[in-house]
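Task 17 of the worksheet. Students: predict the tertiary structure of the chain below and write it out as structure tokens. Keep your answer in the requested format; marks are given for formatting as well as content.
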Amino acid sequence: MPSILWITHRDISSDLTRTSRLGIANELEKRGHSIIWMSPTESIGHFVFRSKRLGFGHKSFTRSIRKSISKIESPDIAIVEWTAIEGSYHELHQRSIPWIIMDRSPPTSRGIAGKIQQHQYQKAWKIARKFSIGAAIKSKFHINSTHNIPYVIVPGGVDCSTFDFDRKVRNTPNLMYLGSISKVRELERLVHMGLEIKFVGSGDAVERLRSLGAQVDNPCSSKEVPFILSQADIGLLHLPNRSEWRGASPLKVSEYAAAGMCVISSDVSGLSEFKHEEWLTLVPLGDDSGFLSATNDLIQSGMDEIRRKGELAKKWAIQNRDWSVCVNDLEKFIIDSLN
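Model answer:
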């Protein structure tokens, strides 16, 4: 089986977004592939430096990759996240190492930082169209007709075997949001709806939510997620009406479903094809009144109905979002590319 170099700007020992990366990598390793990491993680694989100083992250990361990649043994193929393309593509091309652009997180920042990131993002895709063998993306939203590049979709998945906690019988449903609590997600809008929600996570909006009276618990490890979610019945994901969220394929919805929860979520491209599932209610991005109405309707349907739909969610997750399913197309693309 091929050796795969995976270059990411994320610290895969502690970053909150590492879950999908590790899920994909672990499934590939189960199938006999070897993963070699290059990341800002000192304890794993090849370390590359990425400054945490505002405005210096991308430049320092690019420079560090260029220094490090020339010294490593050639893999059979590389998975390169868009943030790492500028620093790696030249050496990969010089050594005739085939590589795939991995796009799991397009820029979501606003203001000057957002404009800079968008420029870097567009530059990465321009390089990928010329030098890569294809792309691995979260949803079709990340590919448009002008990209002219082979691609496979790798949605946010879960290891469904870990979601085996018994759900307590409750008279009224518990509502939960688990994930990044950042200002760009505008989660205070959920608080203003007057719903009793437990938030679990970290980010620059935690104190803001707490000042509004919301219950915000500290983030949990990925191993703790199944147990934490077993304590709730309805998972919420309400996103602002901004273009960068339209292409989301949220991992948290997969986790909610695997835990046997009903889900009320903003309507994003990664979920649209499942809009007729009974356990899933989709609401237009930024539609506060529609989101509140959908939540109240589900609560009023009663716990028996909520539990019934939750069981359907669990079955859906096993069939559609277990990593054993999500990684199939990517593995086939890798193997076919090397034959």
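Marker's comment: The domain at 3-157+323-338 is CATH 3.40.50.2000 (Rossmann fold). The mean pLDDT is 92.
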